[in-house]
From TrEMBL:
It comes from the Bacteria. It holds the Pfam family SDH_alpha. Belongs to the UPF0597 family. HAMAP family: UPF0597. PANTHER family: UPF0597 PROTEIN YHAM. Residues 90-429 form the Serine dehydratase-like alpha subunit domain. GO terms for biological process: L-cysteine catabolic process to pyruvate. This is UPF0597 protein HMPREF9624_01570. InterPro entries: Ser_deHydtase-like_asu, UPF0597. GO terms for molecular function: L-cysteine desulfhydrase activity. It comes from Oribacterium asaccharolyticum ACB7.
Length: 434
């Protein structure tokens, strides 16, 4: 594949669209972004706010700490932070530069302002619809499909922006992903000019390793990363492959520990998720550094891991009852396979084996236990490769396993998108049943 190929440019575009910086869990940040934009359109601080959000948004915002709010959690904190201190032009870094004085104003605003939240009845998986009021004036902003895809801006009765919402719930402003394949992704990873992706991958390494290190250094959430290291000291002392795998799991989990529990460091996301961005990158970096892999090969392995995570997640959709870190962990396992010299056969078997093991891990929103799921996902991705090395594999007909890697990805995509819809509804009912 060469730079002038259309497919080459599409792969670059996908990475540019997906490897974006974000501070905090992306769903509350998307709410804060919508709120900041609505206040900007209104031109004043609202005295009333009404938010309608889809079930998956509510699920992912309910329990997570919103950064730069003094460790407040949930939807109301996200709305208030966006209105009081948000800078809409920063998009997913909308509340990255909140001052201590503004944190106090956010708390006061929550106490004194009517903020009503309801379940959106649009039937869309990803829907944030906020209307703000000041006297007789109002402004409305709606985000659909992905975290920054504004489809409606309205001030009073005047429609400033209106975009058609596609019936299949696909975003209108991203590259069509139907061209992607495991074989094509490997070809691109092998042939990409490093200069074309260096700014994206170097930033991902810098941001995601920094938050992983922060998660190990200080106390966040359930401290899964630290628990893994503390309970396996003998493994670290012995060194070798087992120690590297342990470090990879622990550092990825630690990044989520910090991110889910109020750390104010940014991450580079993947498929709209910071946890998926951490999972697809941190284990690959840990392995590359521990094995003394050169920078270029590490970058190529990260390109592979990121794109495979995106490829798997595309048929499932941005939000689902299916935990997306499973896909990202599979991507990381394939990236590690690449670092060890694996080619298409090894990568395909790693991917199929890994998906066969852990597909079906549920997403019950963003919170501390995401870090434990990341530890599981990384272990799972590596196990898929270890099975191949031992001459073991799952074959078509084993449960949902299909013959052919693309068929397997489609099979799991169908499970996450269609099969788990009722599961998703039941998860939300359980979470809201206080």
């Amino acid at each position: 594949m060469v730079r002038t190929d259309d497919v080459y440019q599409k792969y670059v575009s996908v990475l540019e669209e997906e490897l974006l910086p974000a501070m905090g869990c992306t769903e509350p940040i998307a709410i804060a972004y919508a709120a900041a934009k609505a206040r900007e359109v209104l031109g004043d601080v609202p005295e009333r706010v009404f938010l309608a959000a889809s079930g998956n948004i509510i699920k992912n915002v309910k329990s997570v700490v919103v950064p730069n709010t003094g460790h407040m959690r949930g939807i109301y904190a996200a709305v208030a932070a966006g209105i009081v201190a948000g800078k809409a032009d920063k998009q997913l870094e909308v509340i990255a530069s909140v001052t201590p004085e503004e944190i106090e104003k956010i708390k006061e605003y929550m106490k004194t302002t009517e903020i009503k939240v309801d379940l959106a009845d649009s039937g869309l998986i990803f829907d944030i619809d906020i209307t703000v009021y000041k006297g007789n004036d109002s402004a409305r902003v709606r985000i659909v499909d992905n975290h920054t895809n504004i489809v409606l801006i309205q001030k009073g009765e005047d429609v400033i922006l209106s975009k058609e919402i596609s019936k299949d719930n696909k975003a209108n402003n991203i590259t069509d992903r139907s061209f992607m394949s495991v074989e094509g992704i490997l070809d691109f990873a092998d042939s990409v000019e490093i200069a074309d992706i260096e700014h994206l991958i170097s930033r991902q390494i810098e941001y995601n390793m920094a938050i992983a290190e922060e998660g190990l250094k200080n106390s966040y959430g359930a401290n899964i990363g630290s628990v893994l290291l503390a309970s396996n000291k003998s493994v670290l002392e012995q060194g070798g492959e087992a120690a590297i795998k342990l470090k990879a799991r622990a550092m990825a989990a630690a990044g989520s520990d910090a991110r889910m529990n109020g750390c104010e460091l940014p991450v580079i996301i993947n498929s709209g998720s910071g946890n998926q961005g951490i999972t697809a990158s941190v284990p690959v970096v840990v392995y590359a550094r521990e094995l003394g892999i050169d920078k270029e090969k590490m970058y190529r392995a990260l390109v592979l891991s990121n794109l495979l995570a995106i490829h798997q997640k595309t048929p499932i959709g941005r939000l689902s009852a299916y935990c997306g870190v499973v896909n990202a962990g599979v991507g990381a396992g394939c990236g590690i396979t690449y670092l060890k010299g694996g080619r298409l056969d090894e990568i395909e078997h790693t991917l199929v084996n890994s998906l066969a093991i852990a597909s079906g891990v549920i997403c019950d929103g963003a919170k501390a236990s995401c870090a434990a799921k990341i530890g599981l996902a990384v272990e799972n991705g590596i196990m898929g490769y270890e099975m191949y090395c031992q001459g073991q594999q799952f074959v078509g007909g084993d449960g949902i396993v299909k013959t052919g890697v693309e068929n397997m990805i489609a099979s799991v995509g169908r499970l996450g998108r269609e099969g788990m819809r009722e599961t998703d509804k039941e998860i939300l009912k359980i979470m809201l049943d206080n």
